[in-house]
Amino acid sequence: MKKRLLTGLQPSGALHLGNYFGALKPFVDMYEDYESHLMVVDYHSLTTVRDGDLLRQNIIDIVKDYLAAGVDPEKVVLFKQSDVPQHTELAWIFECLVTVPFLQQAHAYKDKVAKGLEANAGLFNYPMLMAADILLYDTEIVPVGEDQRQHIEYAREATGKFNNAFGETFVPPQEKIYEAVGVVPGVDGQKMSKSYKNTIPLFGSEEEIQKAVMSIVTDSSGGRPEHVYAIHKLFRSEEELDQLYAEKEGKYKDLKEALIADIEAVIAPMREKRASITDDDVRAVLETGAQKARERAEAKMEDVRKKIGVSL
Ligand code: ADP
Ligand code: TRP
């Protein structure tokens, strides 16, 4: 029997290189060897997006991104979280099992609030909705970026709390993090994030990518523009880069132009594929995915409801 793999990304803005190398590409590289689920976690993005038309557009866009990046909907259950109400139902149950001080230790929550995002209760409870996303499908492996490591620990904690209270029900999931990718820096050198407006868009136009790369902060006391290099090494081996960066020492514009060319070479074919995907294609994929996911999630929840005592 194949192991189960699942990941999700928020439709909170255009996907960027950090999302691609941290989560989407690892998923694309692995998913055919597993029984795989890929989500659009739209209820998670409600913690930051308050514009219905924008969220609707973002959902369509991210599914196109998934498909263009190489996800075959025949081989994955591709769905959006809000189509499967069992996720929010299970999240509530987990919220009743973990403490406020435990959730207060979440780095992602603290970082977002420190960056000025509203500390709404959804943002605070976010890790328990994520635990529900993962545990509903008995997921064993979760490909994510380094910044999500603690959230997977939280999902394991939810597993333990539930199983201790009500008997063996959930499987503890394991994160799959590509150490070589680490945390991809944004143009300002901070973690690249949709919420921080410092991204290089994955499917931006060539001009948008150019503009973003040219704006990468180059504070290079050691002679090498570290933030440019950190992004460049996602595209080329360090040996190749060390040679290039030695030849072009101090020539930041040339190095940025080399990076733009390398990004274009990878993105252009995917961008072309993306342009051929219609909104109706997206709706059809999500409808099929929702049916499959709901069936599975409901079977799990029937067991959960019995165990906690709400189903008579
Ligand atoms: P964002 O922070 O841009 O809103 P999400 O929280 O939706 O991104 O993250 C989606 C996935 O992309 C997660 O698995 C996350 O770990 C990964 N990811 C996001 N930003 C980065 C980054 N800068 N470097 C590596 N992985 C990242
Ligand atoms: N919290 C993740 C992020 O910001 C998104 C997410 C929600 C997720 N549910 C998930 C990732 C389940 C993996 C599995 O990136």
Q: What is the structure about, briefly put?
A:
The chain has 312 residues and is mainly alpha-helical. It has helices at residues 17-30, 42-45, 52-68, 86-95, 100-104, 107-114, 121-135, 149-166, 206-214, 226-232, 238-247, 252-275, 279-308, and strands spanning 4-9, 35-40, 76-80, 141-143, 174-176. The model has no long low-confidence stretch (mean pLDDT 96).
Description:
The protein has 312 residues and is mainly alpha-helical. The chain has two domains: 4-182 and 278-308, Rossmann fold; 194-274, Tyrosyl-Transfer RNA Synthetase (Orthogonal Bundle). It has helices at residues 17-30, 42-45, 52-68, 86-95, 100-104, 107-114, 121-135, 149-166, 206-214, 226-232, 238-247, 252-275, 279-308; strands at 4-9, 35-40, 76-80, 141-143, 174-176. Helix 3 (52-68) crosses helix 12, helix 4 crosses helix 7 and helix 9 packs antiparallel against helix 12. The protein is globular and about 70 Å long. The two termini are 33 Å apart. Bound molecules: adenosine-5'-diphosphate and tryptophan (TRP). Tryptophan (TRP) binds next to strand 1 and helix 7.
